Amino acid sequence: MPEMVVAVAVTGILAGASVPAFLGLIQSSRLDGAARQLVSDLRAAQSQAVALDELYRLHSGDDPLVNQPGQYRLELSADGGATWTGVTPWSALADAFPGARLTGITDSAGSPATVYEVRFTARGACANPGPVVYPLQIAVSGPTGSRTIQVRQLGGVKVL
User: Are residues 91 and 59 in contact, defined by beta-carbon separation less than 8 angstroms?
Assistant: First the structure.
């Protein structure tokens, strides 16, 4: 009987020690999933821009004109960027990946990207207006850290 008590105690200690590591693994997996989702949405915008011969963009809700912090949506412009129409609803990464959040878009000079967007042309290239230094960096953050997505001027998109 004492052996059984020792075995149960050792099992309890091992289980208690592994729970925090397991929770960290789940949070890290959510952050990776959020970054992959954002890359997928960027590539969808790029693909639609090429397929429809129009401008498409991923628009960050951190834009003060829309005030949807941490959210984003895909938008289409049929008039060269003068006006934009939402193609998808505003969505937050945390809806599918709890704790994950789009935290910002910057250019390689470290300044905020113009108009809180990543814009794709009908040729699939990234073409944000204004003085932007490529590649653009999109930050996704969560409880376990952050991931950076890079968008190159010729349209390459990848998680760093």
Answer: no
Distance CA 147, CA 87 (A): 26
Lookup: tokens for 38: 């954002």
Express each pLDDT in 85-124 by its tens digit: 999 999 999 999 999 999 989 888 877 666 699 999 999 9
| Number of domains into which the chain is organized | 1
- Domain housing 97: 2-159
Amino acid occupying residue 86:
G
Question: Using CA atoms, how far apart are residues 6 and 27, in angstroms rounded to an integer?
Answer: 33
Nearest by Cα to 115 from 129, 100, 99, 101: 129
Stated pTM of the model? 0.84
